[in-house]
Task: structure prediction
Amino acid sequence: MSVLGLSLALSISTIFQFVLLLGDLKIKLGYLGLNKYKASFWKMVLATFIASLIAYLCLKALGLFVPTSKVLGLLIQTFIAAVFGGAVYLILSLFLGLKEPKLIWRYICKAISAISL
Result:
């Protein structure tokens, strides 16, 4: 559990720091109105869980076809799995009615149009 323990410890400490910083922010600013963000948060958690599951399954399936003994094979396998996971997350977040992907898409389109001018 050496490598897994390291990533688990990092995740736990990050969550702990988030909770402490959120508490400090609530003390300094008062009411934050976090209740209106709970539905979006759980939708994001659901989309993230499903997307990571799909990316993991894609990674394992590609391991059967892509030679992973070389670095290039690992890069290809990781890239394809990440693209599939990202696409699933975007589709699910749009399907669940999250507005953040729409904002990001609008920002990307605005940046592209600014570059092309």
About this structure: The longest helix spans residues 2-29. The chain has two domains: 1-32, 35-116.
